[in-house]
Fold this protein.
Amino acid sequence: MTILSRKGARLPSDARERAKALSRQAVAAGDSSAWFEPLYQQADGNVDGVPWADDRPNPMLVDWLDSNPGDLGRILVVGCGLGEDAEALAPRATSIVAFDLSATAIEWCQRRWPESRVEYVVADAANPPVTWRGSFDFVFESYTLQALLDPQRSAVMRQLPRLLAADGRLLLQCRGRDDDADVDGPPWPLSRNDLRPLEGDLTLDRFEDLHDPMEPEVRRFRVLYRRSSPA
């Protein structure tokens, strides 16, 4: 079976299965972050080849923005993919940087949004530029941690608080699960205990346990943290 892409090309309907295969190969090789670049390369400019690209910003982010008006200051978007979320955040930013580990994804963003005020850059969330430390008032991370296993996931979680300025906020979105639930991925849903390391450096402002309105069977967490001390 095939599906018709937005650009009129035909693409196998098992794009998600191919993504899972790439992820499992990366995990077997010891680096659960190593599958992003091959996935974007294989998509070859076809949005339907990227399972999480919907040609629109994440609905949970849109809902949060609608409920939380006002300027968000200096924004950083983690694992920006094809840029939909970064573009939704841009009007609320005094400045905004969006990054991805995949150089192909960043080049795609730059072509896709040629007039954007977002600065799209290649960077590694597990080892971000030192100059970013304490530089952002608002950091948005959506669905990146759930696509990783340790040690890469833990490395990213250590870095996220360091990116925030004093009183800066981290908005995190992920698939959710009970602490004792079985985990099979990718993606690997996160539990409350999985997220607790962030509370060593950040204060939990709000934890929401939601069901995706587009996929009722999928449980989501939307979590807001705040840094109350200098990074």
